[in-house]
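Comment thread on ticket #2218

A.B. wrote:
> Attaching the input chain for the structure job we discussed in standup.
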Amino acid sequence: MSRIADVFGRLRTQRRKAVVPYVVAGDPSASGTVALLHSLVAAGADILEVGVPFSDPMSEGTVIQQGHERALGNGMTLKGVLGIVTEFRRDDNETPIIMMGYANPIERFGYGAFADAAAAAGVDGLITVDLPPEEVDALDAALHACGLDNIFLISPTTPESRIQTIVERARGFIYYVAVKGVTGSGQLDTAEVASKVATIRAKTDLPVAVGFGIKDANSAKSVAAVADAVVVGSALIDQMVKAVQSDASMSEIQIHDAAVQLMSSIRAGVDSSPS
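C.D. wrote:
> Ran it. Output below, let me know if you need it in another format.
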């Protein structure tokens, strides 16, 4: 059983929901990303989503875009992200890691070479934001051969016929984008999320994770009531940015603590949600 399936199976038995934090590899520093990931796990993360910095992250809002810029400025590359996963695995061989990025760096790396390297590093799944199911065959075959899950996004505007196409290709879990627009934008409508999650569940047995628009314990609690996992990204990165802005002399541990405190709050919110 894959790490992802194992986590969701365990949580289902416990009648609990997963918390999935997203961070950009290399932000706020390349050297500190591994420590940040371990801290997020200690604060209650069940699955880690690691963003691969890209020069044109079209689905991201300002907060994450700037995180990509900082990470690229720190010299982070796709190979560097794989190195971070490798280092993380030296002390944690259980927490699933999902890489989230864009097609161009992976195409340049080579699908087969990337899948081999990702599996060797300890990656469990991949979200390629700008690679639709109609164009995913070559990458999907490479990932499948290495036992990696190919995870797809479904948005509020995705028609039912296309949802069917997506779930037939997906492995690991489905990522439902809860708001229209880029990360960190829009107002969360829990009733709409519940309706769309029900539509997705009618077509697949895969767990459904919900992200975009989750900012605090209350929004996490409301989403956890209708989904299998809650994904939070912009809010965590924003907390670290605000920490730096409040005191430029802060140590990296203190900067990480700003995200970890929010992560702990979101964990508590999710755990207080009706199962």
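A.B. wrote:
> Thanks. Noting for the ticket: The radius of gyration is 17 Å.
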